[in-house]
Design brief:
Elements: H1 2-12, E1 15-20, E2 28-32, E3 38-40, H2 45-52, E4 60-64, E5 74-77, E6 81-84, H3 86-95, H4 121-135, E7 141-151, H5 158-168, E8 173-179, E9 183-189, E10 192-197, E11 200-210, H6 219-238, E12 242-253, E13 256-266, H7 273-280, E14 288-289, H8 291-301, E15 312-316, E16 322-326, E17 330-333, E18 338-347, H9 353-370
Length: 372
């Protein structure tokens, strides 16, 4: 029945987010029963916070891109239905049969990016350009991403993939999201960006990647973790937060291992999650440092269009709580039996082209295998 409910959701044409948090056994559903997801203009989060006010903030499931544009906006799926657990999800989806189906439309961006990273000269050109800036110490870190459109047997079988991934990735947020403007996305992300409410919050620094668990981490990975941690601590201190730190330690996410540091922090007064997100997004793990300079550089010189990869997603002010994750380990699902898979890696002065290329290639292979 669970798999059948996911299939009915997909066939309904309604906009929804089906997701399961790390450590949970059963998923949650946010379903919008009428119209399209609301476009949130959050290019300036502080202005947005002031506009909505403490008692009138948006509520629902937020799906934000790495960089907001008119064609790639931040979307909020309204919680016309918001339930947890398969029993209630099955009941709600069963009731959809009595309603007239909508025509399934989507304005997803279609691009021919089917060349592998070995064949795609754009990745090497971008790497050399990024490395030139790092060697001259214009940046401490820059993140370079890559995407590849590949045949995927999971296309049109997302119901099976979601059930299987929920079992295989207990330490990740597993999600399946559909909106007309953004298309259909699937992912398993281990990286929490922000959770909590009011004055008590939790975030993490997740940086450094390898495929084995034990042993010493390389200097490059340790440095990358330190850069991300220092940035997050600095941002939290600017809020006057009282911080409790745990880590860094090795954390498993699917077939990969990362260095991770957890932060629980208390703020001196109740604070909008939009304001905190403004300080944290994008983290150096997906962008670089200095933050704004790196963000602008990536927008200008990275030859890969990230779309919603590197953005964030999750319930925002839903039942008074917020649980936002960074959108990594993800793919945009195409109706043609293909999927656009995304991966990336952090570059520093110590980065080597062939090592970085192999890491991204491994991430893409692992991601595709995990979703099969």
């Amino acid at each position: 029945m669970n798999q059948k409910s996911v299939r009915k959701l997909l066939d309904s044409g309604l906009e929804f987010a089906l997701y399961r948090f790390p450590g949970e056994k059963e998923p949650h559903l946010v379903l919008q029963t009428d119209g399209e997801a609301q476009v949130l203009d959050l290019k300036n989060y502080q202005e947005a916070t002031n506009h909505y006010g403490a008692n009138n903030e948006p509520s629902g499931f937020i799906f934000a891109p790495f960089v907001e544009t008119s064609k790639m906006p931040t979307l909020l799926i309204k919680p016309d239905i918001a339930v947890s657990g398969w029993k209630l999800i099955n009941l709600e989806v069963e009731a959809l049969n009595k309603k007239k189906k909508r025509i399934v439309l989507s304005s997803i961006v279609v691009e021919d990016r089917d060349a592998s990273i070995d064949e795609h000269e754009g990745y090497e050109v971008a790497f050399r350009t990024f490395k030139y800036q790092l060697d001259r110490e214009n940046y401490q870190k820059l993140v370079l991403s890559f995407s590849q459109l590949k045949d995927w047997e999971g296309a049109d079988h997302e119901d099976e993939v979601f059930i299987r991934a929920s079992e295989q990735f207990p330490n990740s947020m597993v999600y399946l999201v559909y909106t007309r403007k953004g298309g259909r996305w699937f992912g398993c992300t281990p990286e929490l960006l922000l959770e909590g409410y009011g004055m008590k919050w939790h975030t993490m620094a997740l940086a450094g990647t390898r495929t084995w668990e034990s042993g010493e981490w390389s200097d490059k990975n340790v440095h990358e973790q330190r850069v991300v941690s220092d940035y997050i601590e600095g941002q939290l201190q600017s809020l006057g937060a009282r911080i409790t730190r745990q880590g860094p330690y090795t954390s498993k996410a699917g077939h990969l291992f990362h260095l991770r540091t957890d932060y629980t922090f208390h703020l001196p007064k109740a604070t909008s999650p939009l304001h905190i997100l403004n300080l944290l997004h994008p983290t150096p793990a997906l962008c670089g440092l200095p933050k704004m300079e790196a963000w602008n550089y990536i927008r200008l010189f990275e030859r890969n269009k990230r779309m919603y990869y590197g953005g964030f997603l999750g319930p925002l002010n839903l039942r008074a709580e917020t649980n936002i994750y960074v959108n990594i380990r993800c793919a945009q699902i195409r109706p043609s039996g293909k999927a656009l898979f995304f991966a990336g890696g952090g570059l520093t002065r110590n980065s080597n082209f062939y090592e970085e290329k192999e890491e991204v290639k491994k991430k893409l292979e692992t991601l595709r295998e995990a979703f099969t």
